[in-house]
Request: fold
Amino acid sequence: MPGVAPGIGLHLNPNRETWIMEQIFSELTVWHWLALGLVLFGIELMTGTFDLMMLAIAAWVAGAFAYFGPDAYATWQGQLVVFGLAAFALVLAGRTLFSGLRGKVDEHPTLNRRMAGLVGQHGQATADFSGGSGQIKVGDSVWGAEAAAGEIIHEGDQIVVEGARMTKAIVRKA
Reply:
């Protein structure tokens, strides 16, 4: 009989690539769900969001359903329904019930606020302050500054940055 593999009884498609894809995806097996779960879990290890871990667990639940579930319901459509329901429930639980397990990623308090990062730093006045304003050098950077509470600061005085106002440091003598 043409188109039938001898001794196997499989109907061969003349287009071999199509036949292979049909064999792989004609039904979902436990191995598909296990592989999907492992891939999602591997990506989760790199991202650390917990969402992909919940999807990986949902894939493993669908795999367990494919293996243990009744044949009438364990079709690929039934497996996708189980995966969808498990994914929805687990992601919802992960976002609400387990939200305390997620580590909050706090940015550094002075990130993108360079003037705030100067507070508490010691430096030197690079010129006499006139009208309460002048320049200071902290580390290897020169900054605009205002003297705190009417302090008189001269060139070469050691200073401490007490605060920041817009783009100027508020300083006092050290």
